[in-house]
């Protein structure tokens, strides 16, 4: 029996309604550049959407609606380098949408980072033509991408015409809801031929004035050296070549196109057009570039191995494939090219235009995967925040607060990019969008930063690179946001939104936000504690310099301590942590009735609004909010945090809290299933595996019904990998020790994964009985690894076998995360 291929996503047949999802899933990227898996002969027409994006290249456009000017910043769709069409004799360009397709298949090879496309056409005259294309976005040479096309004239002889160029007439129009807003971000400045076989288009973004040069070198190899006639192929905003060649039945014409994309944001260039032309003049041929690229992917996968092997009931090959696909998209979106890009993590990758390429809190879900493999990449994402500290300080000041208030949606310069209105497609109404009240994004940044330092021990990031300032300024902002109420002698944070974006205000209130979101308040306490710990961690001279620079004196520190000890957290009489103050006074929704009526309730907010109601009026959450606390903290840590505030968290309160929200969450964000899988993993493994399945299939199955076409959900994709490593394998970095606390189902066999801890590459094999950790050989100090109380110094080249202290699968009476 052949082993199922878990590395290839195969998409068979032609389905125009599904093309958007396929294009997003088949995006190839290298962290610097991303190109959707659109067919090279296609243009944006409602079915196809060729999109190429460079990380960090944003532009702003303004529109006036109802007399009010609205400005939006978007990641710009760059000139389309794929642009390649072929025609047989005098027929129209081959086009899958125009029918006459006998076979059509797309295959994404995630082991090598190569996209294959095969289509067989029959034309009006009954001639059969087969087209095979291979494509890469080069992992090492960040500016280069390649497309190889072979055209087989199966049963005809005659003329084949190829048009290949660069199309600068593209706009941002990939998301239907934004299409009424302006989308023309580029002005074409120049088109030129830089060599016989090379064209170059230079454009500028209209507001940010980035220059973008996209060049393409097209070479045709004709059978039996038949002459190739090349002519310029020009149209406004587009430059290319038209090549004609004679072909006989059974012969193949090979067309290789190498593209270069360079922008004025890039380092180590003199000027984009010069750089792009130079790169194309020097670039080797397609096969050589492809070989380099696939070798690079092989090295990368070696470093990021996750294998599920030898189980009696191992995970299905489809699950393994989907897990690899998820890892693939994360690894190709955040790469070492991120180190000098200053681009942050766009929530929907370089894969589409949803959320306009903005950066949210999603790195909270991606960083754990990076920190345990590529700490430098995690650091690069954190530096994106460090550089925007002043913008966050300005935002805090403008809101009347001290410290740093990071934006919910961030783009080029760190100002708030959240939209002010959003469309409910069900009712056709535009509604106020107050999601920027999610102040908790700053807390997530502080949490990310701390996790990074825990995993790496990189104190220099704190002291020399601005990490400490970010954490302290976030702490300062939240301490200032908290208001003391003498009535209960507690601090309260009012008028914010938690991660649950459904709840925007109290019923009937015109004041946006809710009070005392438990997640925000508890995380504030955690950050205030870490801020103090951080100051203790620093050498006295550094501490003094820092506190002097921030004007952080004993009075303010005392205030932080008070807030950290007297923060209000709404906890109901039955022990259930309340999502916010007054949450439990809201009525319950009749979930069963709504489910019967509408089936899918992921967009319950839109359903209720279209009915003339409001989701604000019910105990209903879009995604995990309170349960985020169990995702970020162990039960002991949470108990300790609440205990410090004078609240108890008895064991039975945990399953009660989890059950309460499980029954009232619509999972309208892909992040929700991820958090639920995590929270359930300890005690309700089967249910957790169901949620895991949802996470891993979020995009491949487009579980949100249409959102994948607009870009993949990187948080969920990374989350799927993270569930395997941190949740099922129980990997944790705490107190200078790499700990394993696996909850790995025995029937799933062996889980093997490669990690990096404190600079040492490690391979861990996890079963339901033991964890075996092998350290790569080489010079250096040991790292400390542990299972339970058994801590070992693991020297380079050594392997340690740690038996799990308890038998697998104890199922306690209630749920728990203990
Ligand atoms: C979720 C947010 C998330 C954003 C970007 C939204 O639907 O509610 O939590 O940050 O998508 O992924």
Automatic annotation (TrEMBL):
Stored SUPFAM superfamilies: Galactose mutarotase-like (SSF74650), Six-hairpin glycosidases (SSF48208)
Occurrences of domain Glycoside hydrolase family 65 N-terminal (ranges): 12-265
Domain Glycoside hydrolase family 65 C-terminal intervals: 732-794
PANTHER family: GLYCOSYL HYDROLASE-RELATED, PROTEIN-GLUCOSYLGALACTOSYLHYDROXYLYSINE GLUCOSIDASE
Pfam families xrefs: Glyco_hydro_65C, Glyco_hydro_65m, Glyco_hydro_65N
Organism for this UniProt entry: Actinomycetospora straminea
Organism placement in taxonomy: Bacteria, Bacillati, Actinomycetota, Actinomycetes, Pseudonocardiales
Keywords of this entry: Glycosidase, Glycosyltransferase, Hydrolase, Transferase
Name of the protein described by the UniProt record: Trehalose 6-phosphate phosphatase
